[in-house]
Amino acid sequence: MSATEQALETPVFPLAGSSYRCPAPGYARLRAEAPVVRVRTEGGVDAWLVTRYEEAREALADPRLSRAETVKPDAPRIGGAMTSSPDMIISMDGAEHARLRRLAAGAFTARRIEQMRPGIQRIADGILDELALGGGPVDLVERFTVPMPLTVIGELLGVPMRVLRMFVANARDFVTVDDQGENSDSVNGMANLFESMVEVVADKRKNPAQDLLSDLIAARDSGDRLSEQELVTFAFTLIGAGFDTTANQLASSVLALIAHHRDQWNWLAEDRTRVPRAVEELLRHVNLFSTDSAGNPRIAAEDVELGGVKIAKGDAVVIAISAANRDERVFPDPDRLDLARTPNPHLSFGHGMHLCLGKQLTRMELEIAVDGLVRRFPDLSLAVPESEIPWHLGGINHALSTLPVTWTS
């Protein structure tokens, strides 16, 4: 252990103080003094915590830092992690991960996503039309930030709305942090998600349509189709990732803008061509992750050196993406929300092998949603004091329970 590490009190991950507005304040000191440091994890084993951008990006791309090792039966329990299973794409490495990703990648190319723009615009406009007709105040989470991405991913996959509605509650349970017992909410949530998709996949086999789920059923990779287990698991993973993270990022971004950055909300309303660049800054600055990491730790499959620190085979590694996104070496004045910031090489979608498959879809949904809100409701404001707005606690993401808003025009 270096003298710098010895001089630091051993932190406990997740660090205290993370919010949707910023990562835990303790990360600034770690970035400066020990960007790769040994920490305790709540309810789990020791782990290496990576906080600086350069080392975080390197760790995310290093195949020796394995996700598959974290889901083996004898794997150590790492605090701050979400539950996942070996057959989920986020839990795979190497050839297995590449095979599943290759089968779905065609549906998520930039060209294919751009072709979805008119449909996503139609969905957003329809929901906003209903919102405007009713008048305020309304709960923006219930009326817009959840139903919009939920409808989009449902249409993309070809999953009926009755199944999607069941996903909302079960997905919330599934992303519970450190709730990994045999009968935990997280495990039960994952089981319910799996069960609800079995019938959908079986029906798609009999009645294929023009949707991603039908394409996955028909897809082959070197003559090999996805197994039933892989199809069902992949489908609920795509739905969860496709609506929950987008819904939470959108709700928190709107809250940040109308409660704390009114000048920048007005700046967008003045010229909506600014929205795409603004979305990149919202992704960097507005903190999605409640533990300041994506909840997907890694275990070193062999000895690794990172940031001058030797990480031994079998050691756990946690990558604090939110902290890396505030690294002053990469982002000048990193704690300031600057919707015109460029360049903006944030790590909010990850990097390397596990770079988010749906990143272009998420970007487009956020752009269309923010554009629609500033266009239709330029004077959107909170209907209650921010201190009265409830949050879901214990999840991997900062997730608003409600967002009461109103407007006058």
UniProtKB/TrEMBL annotation:
GO terms for molecular function: heme binding; iron ion binding; monooxygenase activity; oxidoreductase activity, acting on paired donors, with incorporation or reduction of molecular oxygen. Coiled coil: none annotated. Keywords: Heme, Iron, Metal-binding, Monooxygenase, Oxidoreductase. It comes from Streptomyces laurentii. PROSITE patterns: CYTOCHROME_P450. Belongs to the cytochrome P450 family. It comes from the Bacteria. InterPro entries: Cyt_P450, Cyt_P450_B, Cyt_P450_CS, Cyt_P450_sf. PANTHER family: CYTOCHROME P450 YJIB-RELATED, P450, PUTATIVE (EUROFUNG)-RELATED. Transmembrane segments: none annotated. The keyword Metal-binding applies. The keyword Iron applies. This is Cytochrome P450.
